[in-house]
Request: fold
Amino acid sequence: MIKLISIEWHKLRYHRFFWIGMVLFVLLLSALLVSFGSFQIFGSGAEADPNDPSMLAIPANLADAGFYTLPFVWQNTSYLAGFFKFIPAFLMLFFMASEFEYRTMRQNVIDGLSVGEFFFSKIFSLLLFALVCTITVALTTSVLIYSYNDLAEADFWLQSSFIIAFFAEVFFILSLAFFLGILLKKSALAIIILVLYYFVVEPVLGFYVGSPLSDYLPTRPSRNLIPEPFTRLFKINSFLNIESLESVSIKNLLISFLYSIVLLFGSFMVLKKRDL
Amino acid sequence: MQIVLEIDGISKRYGKVQALKPYKLQIPKGTTFGILGPNGSGKTTTLGIILGILSSDSGGFTWFNGQSVNSAKKRIGALLETPNFYPYMTAYQNLKLVAKIKELQNPNIDGVLKTVNLLERAHHKFKGYSLGMKQRLAIAASLLGEPEVLLLDEPTNGLDPTGIAEVRDLITRIAATGTTVIIASHILAEVEKVCSHVAVLQNGSLLYSGLADELSAKDAVIAVASADMQALENAIKELSSLKKIRPMDGHLHLSFSEDMSPSKLNKLLAEQGIYLSYIEEKKASLEERFLKILTRDKAN
Reply:
C-alpha cells in the first residue's frame, strides 16, 4: 500500500501539470468563492412594494442576498465549486492516458508491478484529487462562514453535508475521466468525448427518455446532488411556490457512488483483459 | 542443471495471424541464450508473454521453478522493444521509480548510469534524450539491482557502432559474472559473438534450439588437397562415412555423416600412403546455418 502510494506520488510530484492544475484549482476556486458575494445583482436597490406581493426587495449584491449566510452557504459554495470539477477531471484523464501514450504502464508491468497494483496506485491519484478539491471548498467555506455569520446564533454544521455531496460529485467525474482515459488511451480524444457526453449526449438522451428514467442516466445523480441555490436565494421559490431542497438526497448520493464504483470496476476489467 | 525459465507450449494468435505456434524451450541458469529470428518471427511476442504483458492462448511458462510472474520479475532486468520512460522526469528520477517498483533497498543508480555512460546527463529530462541515449538508459534500467536474469530485446537498436561494441562488451562482462542473459535479435553477429545457446524462430515456429557451437559444428566441412588429387579422391571415396565430396577452389570439400576430425582423416589417409598438402576444418558460421535452417523450413 505504502509502496503503491510512493510510486504514484513519485509520478505526480515531478509533473508540472499536476502542480499547475492543483494551484489553479485552489486559487481560482477560493478567489471566486470569496469574491462572489460582492457581485452586483441586476436591478438591485428596488424597494419592496407593500401593495404588490410579487414586488420583492432586491438586495445590492449576492452577499446581501444571503449567499454566505448559514445554513445555506454550504449549498451555495459547493454548487459553485461544482463547475471547477473539470480541472481535476482533465488532469486525471491526462495522467491516465499518458501511461498508455508513452507505454509507461507497460514498462511498469515489465518492471514488476501487477496490473492490479497499477490500478490501485492510480486510485490514489483519484482520491488525492477528490480530497484536495473537497478540502479546498470546505476550508474556504469555513473562512466565509466565520466572516459573515454570528456563530452564537447559527449552527456551523447544519447543512454541511453538502460537502459530502460535493465530494461524491467530484469522485464521480474523476471516475468517469479515469475510465475514459483507460478505455481511449488518448488524452485529447478522451477529453473531447467526456465533454461531448456530459454536455450534449446525455442531456439529449435524457430529453428523449424523459423523467423519471432520465434521472438515472450515469451523470444525472451526481449533477442533482447539489441543487442550484439561486431560485431560493432570490426567493423566487416562495413566489412560485416551490419547495427548495434543504438537504442532500441520500438516494442520489448512493446512486452516484454506485456509478463511480461501476466505472472503476469497468476500468479494472479493461486493464485486466487488455494486452499491453 | 538448474532451469531459470521453462516455456511449455505458449502460443499467440492475432486475428487470422498465428504469431506464435506452441513450442517448448528451457533456458538453463548461467547461460547466454540467444533467440534468433527475422522480424515478425515471434521473438517479442515470446518475451511479452513470459513477462506477463501479453496473454498466451495456450500452454504456460515457469520462472525460477514456479515463482509467480510478478515476484519473478523483480529478479529480472528486462528491455523490451522501445525504451519507455516518463518524458518529464530526468534519467535519475526515472530509474528511482524503477527501483521503487522493483522494491530495491539501495539501488545503485549512479553505478548503472556510469556503466552506460549517462552519468553526466543523469539530471537531464528524458524527453531531450537522443535515441541512442534512450536505449542506453533502458539498458541501465535493466541492470538495476543486479538481476539474476537479464532479458534484452534488440539491445543494440539505435546505437552507433561504438555504442554497439560497448553494449556487446557489457553483455559479455555481465554474462561472465554468472548472470543468465537472454538476448532476442535478428542480427546474427550479435548472438554469435556472445551466446552459448541459441533458439531459432521463424513465422512463429521454433526451428532449432541448442548449443550455439553445435549449431555451427553440425555441418562442418573439411577441405583437403594433395599433390595427387586423383589418388586423394579415390582414397576418400573408399571411406564409409563420407557423405558428400565436392571440388572447390583446387581443394576437395568433404562432409561426413559421422564424427570426423581433421586429425582422424589425416591419419586414415596417411595409412593409405596419401599425404595431404592442405587440410582445414571449415565450420559453417552461424549465419550460414541460420540461413540454411530458414531456407529448409521454407522448402518444406
